[in-house]
């Protein structure tokens, strides 16, 4: 017996406003990239996760590279907003305007506490940061610029010490290393481990 078009199951159209659809696309893409890396996913994978066509995804983000940029920029906006609330400072201070009205210890602890709440996002950035060491990677420029921005934030928090830029690099590297251990072993209490580590790598700078 030959089936007709009317016999086949029909996909129910999931109509959403454009902003809501874009948010869904970014959310699903974030999860997929964190699991497989940028090279391990396709636009079709994101489309399937959203229940729409690949053309529907591209309508909102333009290209696969555009999707990646949208994911990264969205996460930065969310994190800046939440960190500013946690620290009780203006968002502009976290956009590297050269000043930061909180101590290095308080800044680092807030950042670690925030990251402890979002292992999937930390994994996403860790995977993409490693992938983008290749200059041909579409996120190479983004992560190069982000390194400058993040280091400037740490340096601003270390203002008044003998060498804020060096301290920023060392503390930043220690935090990244600890977070990688935590991603490998989620049983680690990231905040508690950072507090212990901060006693040896941050406290000496507080004494100057």
Automatic annotation (TrEMBL):
<keyword id="KW-0238">DNA-binding</keyword>
<feature type="domain" description="HTH tetR-type">
    <location>
        <begin position="19"/>
        <end position="79"/>
    </location>
</feature>
<dbReference type="InterPro" id="IPR009057">
    <property type="entry name" value="Homeodomain-like_sf"/>
</dbReference>
<dbReference type="InterPro" id="IPR050109">
    <property type="entry name" value="HTH-type_TetR-like_transc_reg"/>
</dbReference>
<keyword id="KW-0804">Transcription</keyword>
<feature type="DNA-binding region" description="H-T-H motif">
    <location>
        <begin position="42"/>
        <end position="61"/>
    </location>
</feature>
<dbReference type="InterPro" id="IPR036271">
    <property type="entry name" value="Tet_transcr_reg_TetR-rel_C_sf"/>
</dbReference>
<protein>
    <submittedName>
        <fullName>TetR/AcrR family transcriptional regulator</fullName>
    </submittedName>
</protein>
<dbReference type="InterPro" id="IPR001647">
    <property type="entry name" value="HTH_TetR"/>
</dbReference>
<dbReference type="Pfam" id="PF00440">
    <property type="entry name" value="TetR_N"/>
</dbReference>
<keyword id="KW-0805">Transcription regulation</keyword>
